[in-house]
Amino acid sequence: MPTSHDSHQQTQFSKQADLTEKLVELHVSKYNKNRIFLILLSALSLMGLIGLIVKISTGFNNPSDWGYYVTFVAYLLTTVQAAPMVAIAPFIAKGHWNRPISKIAQLFAPLGLINLILFIPVLFVLPSLSDGRRTLWFFESLKMNSHMPHIMTSISFICLVLLGIALLWISTVPDFAILRENSKNPYHKKVFSILSNRWIGTSKQWFTQKHRIGILGAFYFMTLVIVNFQISSDFAMSLIPGWIDALYPITHTANSFQAGVATVILAMFALRTWGGCKEFIGFDQFWALGKLMFALSLMWIWFFFSSFIVFWYGAKPTEKAIIELSMTGPYFIAFLGSAFLLFILPLLTMPFNKIRRSILGPTVIAFFILIGSFLDKLRIYVPAYQLTEHPNKHNIYLSDIPKAILPDVPDVMIIVGGISAIILAFTVLTKLIPVISIWQQKELSLYKIHKKFHRTEVLVLGKPE
Amino acid sequence: MSETKWGMVIDLDKCTGCQSCVVACQAENNIPINTEDIFNQRRAIEWIRIERYWEGEFPNVKARYIPVLCQHCDEAPCEPVCPVLATYHNDQGLNVQVYNRCIGTRFCANNCPYTVRFFNFWEPEWPDSLKNQLNPDVTVRSRGIMEKCTFCIQRIRRFSRNPESGEKVTERDLNPACTNACATDALVFGNLNDPKSKVSKVRSKGENRSYKMLEDLGTEPNVIYLKKVEKGTKQENNAH
Amino acid sequence: MQEHHHRTDKQINKELLSSIFATPKWWPIATLFCLIVYLIGMTAFGYMLNKGIGVTGLNRPVFWGFYMVNFVFWIGISHAGIMISAILRLTQAEWRRPITRSAEVLTVFALIAALQAAPLVHVGRPWRADLWVFPYDFSRGIWINIKSPFIWDPSAVMTYLTASSLFVFVCLIPDLAVIRDRTKGIVSKIYGFLALGWRGTPVQWKLQIVAGILLSALVLPVFVSVHSIVSWDFAAQIGPEAWHSTIFAPYFIIGAIHSGVSAVATVMVVMVWLFKWDKYITPDHLDAIGRLLIIVATAWFFFFFLEWVYALYTLESPELAMRELQVFEMPWRALFIVFVITAYLFPVPMWLFKKVRRSFLWMFITTISVNIGMWLERFLIIVPGLMRKQPLMFNWGSYTPSMVEILMVCMTFAWVFMGMLLFARVFPLIPLFDIKEGMLVRDEIKIGRAKVPATIRE
């Protein structure tokens, strides 16, 4: 005799088939849309490429000209390459709300390849360790290669990009299998066959896949922390005489999580509004990520203040110089902007339910956080590269604060072009990879049922572990 | 520039390490008796001490002496950390300790990079016979209170109070006890803001040898040291 | 939670209130022992009050020793309550249910222990610090110095103490009503007074839940700031060169979480052993807390590594001198090795094994080990930092703790144990309503042939 459970299962499995159809349709239908948008992005990216070529042709002898360029590379690291953390962290915490958006977050990982290419000129800009500056490689005592920062950061950067691509691929394999089965175009079918790597969905395959995602995620996180550590200490702190801040690598990483979440929120908004994903990316996702972004904004002030209080209270000449260099002196406006956009604005807006529990609220704040994040990087990296040719670069104490410099035209072209290239690459990737992970949505629908509970109807969420 | 700023110049070339300054300070300021036990407990109180460093290997061993006292820093690290404001900077450039406010947290002692602040771990005691030698102008501190060199503020105060009385006051009345006791005139005290004072003259004469202790910390001490002249160097001929 | 023991409301009431309605056999002896240790410690304090700080091992330059180490240690333990309670409550983790109250109570008692460890006792003239504060003597127009970290400290600790006490009380109300309804006479009247007229109506439940969530959210900034402020007691100073590092605030906080969550795990195991609550605190709970501890401990170790690496960054004498002391000179070297092993190298590899995480005995051993290591960590920061303040070697010193200090440290431990024991006798250490709610929202989903545990969300 069919029990209520049986009929529940029937509806479950037919629900699954409907869901698959819907999501495949969504993915396929995005082809041939938004031509003008893509053309505009391509044009801007081309402009960026020209700017890059112009910049490289001016040579690497003037590191202070490259300050804004390095800022942009660090900025991309902390936004684009930190975005996959949104997929990784809740996966470890086993939250269900991030299922629709985990693919969006992971899609940013291959875009790290663009950042890796942009990173190559930076390797020529960074002076070798033989200029006598302080470094965590303890160059003089340990007699290391004078290009250790260059070599080691390149290795970890490459690892980060590869790990990100691997993570994206492994977690998309079931989706490729679905698309392989459901695509009508034989060429597409062949591509998806190759990408889906003989996936048929056996228990063993699911088990292996789950563990691989877990391990790749953990390694991605660790590598991200290491790359942030290396970029912040070798490519910034080491260049500023007298700056010893054990916290800065962590601050850099924590700020990157804030900016990474902001990046994902913007991508979510774009896909919901113009990408047709309204049904899947809903309030839950914006609310959860908005809360997370708010918490990370509050952490910004904690990390900033922890460094600041030690320098300000200690009032040693070196520390006073650092405060002047990066906060109160030539880059005061950048500092004010970053403090306002990264902390004060979220603090004044996000506690209010009306703003936080909405779609537009977190999106607007996320946009401002991304601007603030750039200003925050600017006030550190630009003076760092100005000081490479400063007279007291070999001294232990910074006694002369250089004046502020503005970006030149190739810098602006590169920044605008770079951001356009990122958006363009993301859009192109979504043509290949379904932006809403089909298998995760199907899994969610299995765990989510509505039941009658006493006199009301409730949602029951399965917790498999 | 007319404001008084008390400071000291210590000429290390003249210092013999005789410790007269230490004894004089002890007598002037009612410093508790440092018994052997207390010394072994590392709690000896010496507002001015002669630090001795050994340099070199036998047979070329050298002893270096440096009298260390409260540097009366312009940016004193001991001042902002006291929770009860028992130490502050007065308008004559002195770092002042207010005994009756002090609750003895010892925060100031930790933050002083020169370790010139002392804590009364025990209740100071003098045998009856010595009680008459206590200086009536100086507070006798009880246990649980911080103390340090005051540049003999009681003498500075007395000197500033007396001009009307017609009594002739000399520089020696103004000087702290340590400065007066020094046999070689290694310690010179006075108003650093007055270009005509002895201390300013000694300072500018020894400009090429002058330094301050732990300058990189930005404490801006008001005790200026003049480096010892090495035998056989060019400086030997230019000094004094 | 895969393992689930279903309990009816009646069973929950009976089992969790067992220690209140009947004295467990071991309870009087345990409490008496703690009381005796506490009184011995108090006597030592009285002796110090009479003779002076000279009875301790403190000297010049090591003006802070065991008392400050103990203070920082207990502030660290106090972070457990918030971590477990507020954060797990806000992320709606089901496994928090049996342990929230004991964690919060541990926080309250740990904070009071911290106050007894240093601020109230270790100053030169404690009667001025303890008695002449309210009202403060401002007759000469001079107030406290708000620029001093020693003013930020008590402000933060008192705020935290107030918030945690409120938290404990608000979450205790429904349980107080249960006890009120099961007792008679004056006892019932007292519980009734504390229960504030709780009847369990929907309005009251809603208020209680909202209060819990609000307190959780508001206490999180306090949680972060308290230990940051305690760390700035050290980091803001320039005297001891080894302390002047920007990483101190997050380093201390992550250390506090490490030490505090380990302490909560210890308390969990002890509760099961003493009160036989093995149906409520299962190996699943220990497993969850063990996994959390691996992540926290590894993050802590990374911060420890960063602190070291940046200390060596300048390769200049003051910082190097303190590290050389820790690594090359005995007995500091022995202490340093013991610290690294007990705080990380022994427990964390153990926790990687599921068998260890699910064993009550091994979780007890590893978490005690962590707290021994973390106590040593604070000691190795504070005392060697003062022993090698600056490159002026003439002022380098040493430190040996005295009997008075050791007794007063034991006193604070006895305080916390005694407090928890007394609390367990009067209030339920496992929140009844939380467990009952947990039973209610448990459900199961059938997926194919598998049954998956689930929770009901509105």
Give the rounded overall mean pLDDT of chain B. Answer: 90
- The CA-CA distance between the termini of chain B, in Å, is 28 Å
Radius of gyration of chain B, CA atoms, in whole angstroms: 18 Å
* Element string of chain A (H = helix, E = strand): HHHHHHHHHHHHHHHHHHEE
Helix content of chain A: over 70%
Mean pLDDT of chain A: 87
Short description:
The complex is a heterotrimer of chains A (465), B (240) and C (458). Helices cover 71% and strands 3% of the residues of chain A.
How would you characterize the overall build of this protein?
The complex is a heterotrimer of chains A (465), B (240) and C (458). By secondary structure, chain A is mainly α. Chain A has one domain. Chain A contains 18 helices and two strands. In chain A, helix 11 packs across helix 16. Chain B has a four-stranded mixed β-sheet. In chain B, strands 2-3 form a two-stranded antiparallel sheet. The longest helix of chain B has 9 residues, at 20-28. The mean pLDDT of chain B is 90. With 458 residues, chain C is mainly alpha-helical. Helix content of chain C is 69%, strand content 3%. Chains in contact: A-B, A-C, B-C. The interface between A and C is large, with 43 and 41 residues. Strand 2 of chain A pairs antiparallel with strand 2 (450-457) of chain C.
List the defining traits of the structure above.
heterotrimer, A: 465 residues, mainly alpha, two-stranded antiparallel ribbon, globular, disordered N terminus, B: 240 residues, alpha+beta, 4-stranded mixed beta sheet, two-stranded antiparallel sheet, 9 helices, 22% helix
Q: What's the SSE blueprint?
A:
The complex is a heterotrimer of chains A (465), B (240) and C (458).
Chain A: H1 4-29, H2 35-57, H3 67-79, H4 85-93, H5 99-107, H6 112-125, H7 139-142, H8 148-182, H9 186-196, H10 203-234, H11 248-274, H12 283-314, H13 317-328, H14 332-349, H15 353-356, H16 360-386, H17 409-432, H18 438-447, E1 448-453, E2 456-462
Antiparallel strand pairs in A: 1-2
Helix pairs in contact in A: 1-18, 2-17, 3-6, 3-11, 3-16, 4-5, 4-10, 6-8, 8-9, 8-10, 10-11, 11-12, 11-16, 12-13, 12-14, 12-16, 14-16
Chain B: E1 6-11, H1 20-28, H2 36-40, E2 49-55, E3 62-68, E4 87-89, E5 95-97, H3 107-111, E6 118-119, H4 128-131, E7 146-147, H5 153-161, H6 171-174, H7 177-181, E8 187-191, H8 198-205, E9 210-211, E10 223-226, H9 234-238
Parallel strand pairs in B: 1-10
Antiparallel strand pairs in B: 1-8, 2-3, 4-5, 6-7, 9-10
Chain C: H1 9-16, H2 18-21, H3 27-51, H4 66-90, H5 100-117, H6 126-130, H7 149-181, H8 185-194, H9 202-235, H10 248-275, H11 283-311, H12 317-328, H13 332-345, H14 347-351, H15 354-357, H16 360-387, H17 403-426, H18 432-441, E1 442-447, E2 450-457
Antiparallel strand pairs in C: 1-2
Helix pairs in contact in C: 3-17, 4-5, 4-9, 4-10, 4-16, 5-7, 5-17, 7-8, 7-9, 9-10, 10-11, 10-16, 12-13, 12-16, 13-16
